[in-house]
Amino acid sequence: MSFFRIFIILVVCLAAGGSSAAWRPETIRVAVVKGGDTLQLDGTGVLLTDTRGEPLRIEMPIEVKRAGSRITANGVTISGLVASAPIRIDVNGKGYRGIVEVTSGDRGLLVVNELPIEDYLIGLINCEISSAWPLEAVKAQAVIARSYAIYQKNARRGAPYQLESSVMDQVYEGCDIEDSRAARAVQETAGEVLTYDDKVIQAFYHSNCGGHTENSRNVWGMSLPYLRGVPCRYCLDANPMRWDLKLPLKKVEVALRAAGYQVGGLKDIRVQSRNESGRVQELAVYGSRGRIAVSGVAFRKAIGYGVLKSTNFEIRMAGDEALISGTGSGHGVGLCQWGAKQRAADGFDYQEILSYYYPGVKLAKGYGQ
Q1: In the listed set 76, 97, 116, which residue is the last one of a domain according to the structure?
Q2: Vertex 308 angle, CA 210 and 292, to 5°
Q3: What does the pLDDT look like over 68-123, one tens digit per residue?
Q4: What is the spatial distance between Cα 201 and Cα 154, in angstroms, rounded to a whole number?
Q5: To which H or E segment does residue 103 belong?
Q6: Rounded alpha-carbon distances, angstroms, from residue 248 to 202, 253, 304
Q7: In terms of residue numbers, what domain contains 40?
Q8: Which of 68, 134, 178, 182 has the highest Cβ tally under 10 A?
Q9: Radius of gyration for the chain, computed over Cα atoms and rounded to the nearest angstrom
Q10: What is the pTM of this model?
Q11: Which residues pair with 67 in a beta bridge?
């Protein structure tokens, strides 16, 4: 890290005053824009340099455009732009704390926000849950989001960024939706992470498990002792998520073919097996070329995670449509957010909530290893 970056991060941490970020300037790099040929930067008291640390004298607001492997800022061609401010920097109207870097990536402009992890968490809370939930549930979310971020930071050292700002990692929309309850939950758990065998865990989580969380082996093929899957009636009380879906068989066929399955003249889809959590393990897909097997996880990916909300479903045919009825939302691994909300409402504290959904873990302070 350059002297300039260290100086700016220290300034940002001091500007945070009594926030938890001030006690240790541990930072994270988050990709907040990936793609597009133009964007707008704005802010007050913004310091600008190029990627070599040379000062730039460009007036705000700035229109940034992609120019091959370089960018232009208000018409000035540069290799990249680094912006910092004591309060916030606006990127396409959204506010971000810390440092914002803009370069030209493989698929368009790449914007990376580098900021103290504790500030990142305050901005993340209301993207993943509501800070109005019982405080112990919000604190549990802060700990698992911090654990996930630290794990990915350690795993992706040397990469241009350590986290996506979408469901690919954790949803993060900057500082505009920060509030005092989110800040309190982060501050009261400052630096705390979940560990197993003295190492920070992959703290996966999801919205609603539909009654039983999932074993990581069934989703990603890796068996982790703290991601085994546990019964969870709590989400059924808090948010009994049931959903129905109609899919034209032709649309399903196109999706499966795009995913690499050689299926044509799709006629029927049947559940062949379920795993111990009740989710679909394997489907039998019948077409003009015969029968092929498709795992429930692969089927959901092909159809789209936002369309097929989970692999906990029933399916039947009605003419040229597949009628799907399911429960829950997300991959089901790790903490169930709606279940955590109900457990907090029932009087469990955040440590008890975390130990239930991640069996065998320990709570450690200091960001772990």
Answers
A1: 116
A2: 110
A3: 999 999 999 999 999 999 999 999 999 999 999 999 998 999 999 999 999 999 99
A4: 11
A5: strand 99-105
A6: 37, 9, 14
A7: 3-116
A8: 182
A9: 23
A10: 0.89
A11: 70
